[in-house]
Amino acid sequence: MASSDEFRAAMRHFVGNVSIITVGTGEDRSGLVATSAISLSVEPPTVIVCVNRSASAWQLFQRYGHFGVNSLSPQQQTIAERFSGAGGIKGADRYALGNWITDITGAALLKDAPVALDCELEEMIDRATHSILIGRVRAVHTSHNDGALTYWRGAYHPLGH
């Protein structure tokens, strides 16, 4: 069996789209950075996001039953850094940068994200250290913000600039 270190090093060779996953409302909100947000199906529109159960936001997903998936552009790297917990920033303080809106579920959506998905939590499946969130997409927002922020080999990289 591969060791955790070998597996972690191997996974760093996969390019991931950087997304902010938001959850909660008002002062009882938080969020995190994910490179694991992908589509599950088109009919019905459904996504999958993998969240570490040790993340400070994890407990909020079941409490609120919604989440936002905000794909970031290269110009939004500082927002990604806030949501990764850089500098010890936690909870609602992570939302200090960016223009945030809500839609059907009440999840926070980054207004100028290239793509923002408003999701209702359908199911959480626990496996090992993570939960697989399955979300029904209730609303889709797109902007003309060009490019994508990716994560590869342990660092952020712009795509499409």
UniProtKB/TrEMBL annotation:
Domain Flavin reductase like residue range list = 11-158
* Kinase is among the record's keywords: no
GO molecular function ontology, one term from the record: FMN binding
Q: Could you tell me the superkingdom of the organism this chain comes from? A: Bacteria
Record keywords, A-Z: Oxidoreductase
Q: Which residues form a coiled coil?
A: none
Record-linked PANTHER family: FLAVIN REDUCTASE, FLAVIN-DEPENDENT MONOOXYGENASE, REDUCTASE SUBUNIT HSAB
Assigned protein family = Belongs to the non-flavoprotein flavin reductase family.
Name of protein: Flavin reductase family protein
This protein's species is: Rhizobium setariae
